[in-house]
Each structure stands twice: as structure tokens, then as C-alpha cells.
Specification:
Layout (H helix, E strand, L loop, with lengths): L7 H52 L7 H55 L10 H24 L1 H16 L6 H29 L2 H5 L2 H16 L3 E7 L6 H22 L4 E7 L3 E8 L18 H11 L3 E6 L5 E8 L5
Parallel strand pairs: 1-2
Antiparallel strand pairs: 2-3, 3-5, 4-5
Helix pairs in contact: 1-2, 2-3, 2-4, 3-4, 3-5, 4-5, 7-8, 8-9
């Protein structure tokens, strides 16, 4: 007889453990990089102090010093200042990233401890019906933390990168040695910083779009589908029908995360050339549909117990916890159609 599939609670616990392991690896890497960067910062600080002292000595005897030596000394000082400025910025960014990861690790440890207590309290064969409010609260807690982290990153690294763009423009005017080359290098720096800033903003939106809380599901889905179309290059259409309305936060989150999962599958696996997304809302339920003309697959693979902790199977379990259903229609070579049907819940 086949072993029982893991429960939704066990699935959440395993996902939390895996995320904690990943976070701890990232934290170790950042700590090592930060240690090396601080050592380099100390060296640059000492070098800058030595150069500044040398310049003060030179100022007392400038009339008797060769012009070339004066120019070389000031160029060295300018270079040292730029290196020191850049390294300080790197250390500050690494410190901010370390703080964010430490908070996330602490949160995950608390979540795992709570889930382990809950799992231990569930008796074998106990009905899962009573777990629904509990799972909803767990999802809400996870999303609250994601929202907190997204705002922290928005106010931290994203703001730092914005300042970096401005500072590069100021630094561009400071160089006197080979102005053409200096401006070219700084222009590249500015472009790289602007690109990094956009990536961080995209990450914030994927992690927890703030507009989901402010404006609701429909505007957020519209923006996400537009972004998906631009980044993936896959022609994607969105159809909104029914009555637009706000739902309970946990339901809006579940539907949005489901669409993220389904569109991610299309981008990474389907090899599709067209995607169509439909979002229909009435008085009793929300139906979200993702259809593609990709290579399709055999839905029976979801019955494999080894696949139960990830992907569509986990999504199906979570939707069912809210009283909804997930329907999957796919055949090899004939594309895929996935329907998420979620009750609207209590009025908001």
C-alpha cells in the first residue's frame, strides 16, 4: 500500500525548513563578504588618511614642487577618495542585507517551531476540515512578514541604489584626469546602478506587491500580467469579467500567488507562444484561468508522492483549504488549461 501523501501542514513545514536553509546559506555568504569588505575598508581608510597627511605637507611647499608631482599627488588623493566612497557604500548595503536576512531567519525559526507544535498536536486520521482557519492564519502570517520585508528592502537597498545614481553624477564632475574616459566609466556605472534598482523593484513586487493591499486583486493582476509579457516575451492577454470587488486578504493572496505559480510554469516549462489569463468574479466565487498552447504534460505525474511538496500539487492543496478547487486539463503536445475556483468568503 502506498504511503500517505503529506498533509498541508507538513507541506508548509517542509517549505519553511527549505527556505530557512536557503536563507542561512545566503547569510553565511554575506557575512563572509562583509568581513572581507570591512578589512578592505580599513585599508582604504588608512591609505586615504596617509594621502591626506601627505597633501597637507605638500601645501606648505607648493611653490617649490614640480607641477607633475603636485598633479600626481592630487590624482592619487582623488582616486583614494573614490575607492573609499565606493567601499563604504558596499559595506552599508551588505549590512542592510545582513539585517534583512537575519530578521527573515528569526521569523522562519519561529514559524517552524510553531508548525512543529501544531503537527505534533494533530492526531493520525484526524479530519482536516478544522485546519482551514489555522492554515489561513499561517498564510496570513507569512504574507505579513513578506510585506514587512518588501517595505524594508524598498526603504533600504532600493533607496541606496537611487542615491548611488545621484552620487555617480556628482562624481562625474570631479574627475580631471582623462575626462572622456572618466565620464564613459561613470556613465556605465550609472546604467548598471539603474538596472540594479529596477531589478530590486521587480523583486519587491514579486515578493509582495504593495498594490495588492492598497488596490486589490484586479489591478495587481493587470500589472503582473503586463510585466510577465514584457519580461518573458510571450504574447499574453488578460480578460477581466464579472464585478470587481475586494476579497479577504488571504484569498487575494492565494489567487495572486496561484497566478504567479502558473505563469512561472508557463515561462519555465511550457515552451508556449501564447498565453491567455482570465479573471472572473461573481457574488460567490472567483475563477482564475491560465491557458497556454505549449507542449503540455501528463496530469498523472501529480499523483507521484515525490511531487507533493511543490508546484501544482501544493497549489491545489492550498486552494482546497479555502474551500476552492483546482482543475487541470493538459495533454502532451496540446497545451495546458488550469482553473482556480475560490469562494469569495466573507464581505470586505
Amino acid at each position: 500500500m502506498d504511503s500517505e501523501a503529506p498533509s498541508p501542514l507538513e507541506t508548509l513545514l517542509e517549505e519553511a525548513r527549505l527556505e530557512l536553509e536557503s536563507t542561512q546559506r545566503e547569510l553565511r555568504d554575506i557575512k563572509l563578504t562583509l568581513h572581507q569588505s570591512r578589512a578592505e575598508l580599513d585599508k582604504l581608510t588608512q591609505r586615504n588618511a596617509q594621502i591626506a597627511a601627505h597633501l597637507r605637507q605638500m601645501q606648505a611647499n607648493l611653490e617649490n614642487m614640480p607641477r607633475a608631482e603636485i598633479k600626481s599627488a592630487y590624482e592619487a588623493a582623488q582616486d583614494a577618495q573614490q575607492r573609499l566612497f565606493a567601499m563604504r557604500g558596499q559595506v552599508e548595503r551588505l549590512q542592510a542585507d545582513q539585517q534583512h536576512l537575519e530578521r527573515l531567519a528569526d521569523y522562519l525559526k519561529k514559524t517552524i517551531a510553531t508548525l512543529e507544535e501544531l503537527a505534533a498536536s494533530v492526531q493520525p486520521g484526524q479530519s482536516g476540515a478544522g485546519d482551514k482557519p489555522l492554515i489561513a492564519r499561517i498564510v496570513e502570517a507569512q504574507e505579513t512578514e513578506r510585506q514587512k520585508l518588501s517595505r524594508q528592502i524598498h526603504d533600504g537597498p532600493a533607496q541606496a541604489l537611487s542615491n548611488f545614481v545621484l552620487q555617480s553624477e556628482i562624481a562625474m564632475r570631479l574627475f580631471e584626469r582623462d575626462p572622456a574616459l572618466a565620464r564613459a566609466e561613470l556613465a556605465n556605472m550609472k546604467t548598471a546602478a539603474a538596472t540594479a534598482l529596477q531589478k530590486i523593484r521587480d523583486f519587491i513586487f514579486d515578493l509582495r506587491p504593495m498594490m495588492l493591499d492598497d488596490l486589490g486583486l484586479v489591478p495587481t493582476v493587470k500589472r503582473y500580467v503586463d510585466a510577465f509579457k514584457d519580461k518573458s516575451g510571450i504574447p499574453t492577454t488578460l480578460t477581466i469579467t464579472g464585478t470587481e470587488r475586494r476579497l479577504e486578504s488571504v484569498r487575494e493572496v492565494m489567487i495572486f500567488r496561484g497566478l504567479q505559480e502558473l505563469l512561472s510554469n508557463v515561462r519555465n516549462h511550457a515552451q508556449a507562444t501564447e498565453v491567455h489569463v482570465t479573471l472572473d468574479t461573481d457574488d460567490v466565487r472567483v475563477r482564475a484561468i491560465v491557458e497556454d498552447n505549449g507542449r503540455g504534460f501528463n496530469p498523472e505525474i501529480l499523483a507521484d508522492s515525490k511531487q507533493k511538496t511543490v508546484g501544482l500539487s501544493a497549489l491545489k492543496e492550498r486552494i482546497e483549504l479555502l474551500g476552492g478547487a483546482l482543475e487541470l486539463d493538459s495533454q502532451p503536445g496540446q497545451g495546458t488549461r488550469v482553473v482556480m475556483d475560490v469562494p469569495v468568503g466573507e464581505p470586505v
